[in-house]
Design brief:
Blueprint: E1 15-19, E2 22-26, E3 35-39, H1 42-45, E4 48-52, E5 56-57, E6 63-64, E7 66-68, E8 73-74, H2 77-87, E9 94-97, E10 104-105, H3 109-125
Parallel strand pairs: 4-9
Antiparallel strand pairs: 1-2, 2-3, 3-4, 5-6, 7-8, 9-10
Helix pairs in contact: 2-3
Length: about 140
Amino acid sequence: MTRADPAVQFWEGDTKPIGSGLTLVRLGGHFDGGTVLHWSDWGEGRGVLLSGDILQVVPSGHVSFMWSYPNLIPLSAAKVQRMAEILEPFAFDAVYGAFSGRGQIDANGKQVVAASVARYIARINETSEVSVERSAEPRRAAV
């Protein structure tokens, strides 16, 4: 911390209630302290997750996960699974990310996040054998 201030409060654990229906949820992600805000009373009790870039809302209507956004390095499957486990107790219908124009999830947020986690882990764990065919004929490409 650059400058101490009484307004700055350090906390431990995965969650910290900060007001009526407001809970900080430390998910980690691209840095250990990555935190989202769960607001249980939002939308007449529907609940919302304000995810910043910890859960990145993407234009397809899913969320995704990165260890390094500038370098496009994905987050490990184990870390994404841990994030999902921490989020499990929270009910939310909407997810709002950090960047306008990137989309938001207005309904079924918890289900969308769960499906996104499953989709992500399946892809990140996928292995494929790359075979290189050697041919006597040169490859041609059309321009």
